[in-house]
Write a structure and sequence with these properties.
By secondary structure, this protein is α/β, with parallel strands linked by helices. It is built from eleven helices and eight strands. The radius of gyration is 18 Å and the shape is globular. The two termini are about 15 Å apart.
């Protein structure tokens, strides 16, 4: 079991010094799919980083639409092709598909059409992901951030429809709790859960900092499902890794061991 923090490569020294195993970068600033190859500097950034980058989030920028009438399929396909190829080079094995603004269904746009557009995006990506040994993990987002794929159960509909080993699912404790999802839905999805995000529900702060979060039932479900992957902290107001990093990591490990 490895624990990491969603942050940038230039913070990796501080993250490593506080005991963490890896960082989870931002696709848009690390893999930079909008830039041509000659302008991409991701490998230079990786060499500077004190920790590996096995995962990256914020897959698609908000103005590059996946659903709705403004979808530019050619631009979207060029973008995701570059990202996946570069993820393979940086050994970023999991790309997190949250991208709420990009996938959000516009008002009065047909929802069934939007679902087909998301499916088309995933179908296009799947063989490229396999080619470069990268997985895309679909992240359910709460309804305040996005109006489609709001639960693990809904994310699993796409995972099963695409039916490809490189298109899997993510669970984020913050969104999971905010949507009041039952643990039974997570239990049913466990064979496809390939990445985990955590944050306290209250204030979306780092685990344990709100003083009111009990991760043990959540972690117990992961353990019962034989989850052995990475767990990334994705939260707000967590930048003082020297003072906050060790106690947050200690809290997470204790919760996992007690689950």
């Amino acid at each position: 079991m490895r624990f990491g923090i969603c942050t940038s490569y230039d913070k990796a020294d501080a993250v490593k010094a506080s005991g963490w195993d890896y960082i989870e970068e931002c696709v848009q600033t690390f893999h930079q799919g909008l830039l041509p190859d000659e302008q991409w500097k991701g490998m230079d950034k990786l060499q500077i980083s004190a920790l590996p980058v096995p995962a990256a989030n914020m897959l698609v920028p908000g103005d590059l639409k996946i659903t709705g009438p403004a979808v530019d399929s050619s631009k979207l396909q060029t973008y995701i092709s570059r990202v996946i190829e570069r993820a393979g080079k940086t050994e970023t094995r999991r790309l997190v598909f949250g991208s709420g603004n990009a996938r959000n269904v516009p008002d009065r746009f047909d929802r069934e059409t939007a679902m087909r557009q998301i499916r088309a995006f995933l179908d296009f990506a799947a063989p490229l992901l396999a080619k470069h040994d990268v997985a895309l993990v679909i992240e359910p987002l709460n309804r305040n951030e996005c109006n489609i794929i709001n639960s693990v159960a809904e994310a699993m509909e796409y995972v099963k429809a695409v039916n490809h080993p490189n298109v899997q699912c993510l669970v984020d404790s913050y969104h999971f709790w905010l949507e009041d999802e039952p643990l039974e839905q997570l239990k049913a999805a466990m064979p496809w859960i390939k990445h985990v995000h955590v944050a306290d529900q209250e204030g979306r702060v780092a685990p344990g900092l709100s003083g009111r979060s009990d991760y043990k039932p959540f972690f117990q479900t992961l353990k019962q499902g034989n989850y052995t992957g990475d767990i990334s902290v994705e939260c707000l107001n967590f930048t003082d890794y020297k003072s906050q990093g060790p106690p947050v990591l200690e809290f997470l490990k204790a919760q996992w061991n007690q689950a």
